[in-house]
């Protein structure tokens, strides 16, 4: 996800996703007060490939396909030769993903945006969101089913919604909340048949994958990162269900990028550690 506005000096968070799990690497330029966020994720296990740093002043690269208005919400651009015989179905599925994510998040996009489905000749799958210029992307290939591409787009769509809803404060949001909300907002596209993220994380925990919420995934490997994304989504689910969306929105705008940096005490009167224990008890019920 890229979430920021153009007038702010950007930072880069780059995440690459490819075929058996996911890897996200945060790249921060010292001395720059704002972030340019880019997130890539997949609901299915994937193999990772090395990240390629993105210049903080770059713009979305051109692709070969024509830009076609879809509805009042977005325009669609698909690389020539990619899903050619499936364009109508792909368009319908992306429309459904936008509607689903907007409904689940509780707000619609402020303006039109572009969805770019780009042919990656190496058949690596990853997603990007340039939310300042309202362009979200998925890189895929004909050998990868379109539903996997749409699932990645669902996560990126929520990042665009976060950008529109929270404004400049989203530039420095606590990673637990920004990635947790984007994963939670993608809902059924990421749950792999589970009813909710609470049950998903319970199963994950029973399998031995569980980390303190304020853990940063950098350097811990793919399994830890995957576990944290789902834990963060479950924690967002817990906060909204237990304390309400209004308090969550107040919390969201208080973060300073790193996991656990939001003002939990100021909003809830409890530290993150106290809320974490409540969340674990909630999972166990």
Description:
The structure is a single chain. Helix 2 packs across helix 3, helix 4 packs across helix 5 (222-243) and helix 5 (222-243) packs across helix 6 (245-252). It contains eight helices and seven strands, in the order E-E-E-E-H-E-E-E-H-H-H-H-H-H-H. With 285 residues, the chain is α/β, with parallel strands linked by helices. The model is unreliable at 1-57 (pLDDT under 50). It folds into two domains: 12-167, 3-Layer(aba) Sandwich (Glutaredoxin); 173-284, no CATH class.
In short:
With 285 residues, the protein is of the alpha/beta class. The protein has 8 helices and 7 strands, in the order ββββαβββααααααα.
How is this fold's topology laid out?
Layout: E1 12-17, E2 22-27, E3 67-69, E4 74-78, H1 87-105, E5 113-119, E6 126-130, E7 135-140, H2 146-166, H3 175-186, H4 197-206, H5 222-243, H6 245-252, H7 264-268, H8 272-284
Helix pairs in contact: 1-2, 2-3, 3-5, 4-5, 5-6
Structural class: alpha/beta
Could you say which overall geometry the principal axes of the C-alpha atoms support? globular
Low-confidence runs of at least 5 consecutive residues = 1-57
Reported for the largest beta sheet, the result is:
5 strands, mixed
Q: What is the CATH C-level name of the largest domain?
A: Alpha Beta
**Number of discrete helical segments:** 8
Counted beta strands: 7
Distance between the termini: 33 Å
Please state roughly what percent of the residues sit in beta strands, choosing from under 5%, 5-15%, 15-25%, 25-35%, 35-45% or over 45%.
5-15%
Using only C-alpha atoms, the radius of gyration works out to 18 Å
Query: Which strand order does the major sheet show?
Result: 3-4-5-7-6
Which CATH-level-2 architecture of the largest domain?
Answer: 3-Layer(aba) Sandwich
- Percent of residues in helices: 25-40%
Order of helices and strands: EEEEHEEEHHHHHHH
Domain module count? 2
Q: Return the CATH topology of the largest domain.
A: Glutaredoxin
What is the oligomeric state here?
single chain
Average of per-residue pLDDT values? 82
């Amino acid at each position: 996800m890229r979430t920021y506005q153009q007038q702010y000096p950007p930072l880069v968070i780059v995440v690459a996703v490819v075929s058996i799990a996911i890897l996200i690497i945060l790249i921060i330029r010292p001395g720059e007060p704002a972030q340019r966020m880019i997130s890539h994720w997949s609901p299915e296990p994937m193999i990772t490939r090395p990240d390629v740093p993105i210049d903080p002043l770059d713009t979305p690269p051109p692709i070969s396909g024509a830009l076609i208005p879809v509805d009042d919400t977005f325009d669609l651009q698909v690389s020539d030769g990619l899903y050619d015989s499936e364009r109508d179905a792909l368009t319908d599925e992306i429309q459904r993903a936008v509607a689903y994510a907007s409904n689940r998040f509780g707000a619609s996009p402020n303006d039109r945006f572009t969805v770019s489905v780009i042919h990656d000749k190496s058949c690596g799958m990853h997603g990007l969101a340039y939310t300042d210029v309202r362009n979200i992307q998925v890189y895929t290939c004909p050998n990868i089913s379109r539903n996997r591409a749409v699932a990645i787009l669902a996560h990126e769509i929520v990042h665009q919604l976060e950008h529109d809803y929270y404004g400049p404060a989203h530039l420095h949001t606590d990673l637990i909340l920004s990635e947790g909300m984007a994963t939670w907002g993608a809902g059924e596209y990421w749950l792999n048949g589970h009813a909710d993220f609470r049950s998903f994380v319970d199963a994950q925990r029973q399998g031995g994958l569980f980390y303190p919420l304020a853990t940063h995934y950098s350097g811990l490997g793919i399994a830890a990162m995957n576990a944290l994304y789902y834990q963060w989504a479950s924690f967002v689910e817990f906060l909204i269900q237990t304390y309400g969306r209004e308090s969550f929105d107040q919390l969201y705008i208080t973060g300073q990028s790193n996991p656990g940096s939001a003002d939990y005490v100021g909003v809830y009167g409890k530290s993150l550690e106290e809320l974490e224990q409540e969340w674990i008890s909630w999972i166990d019920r």
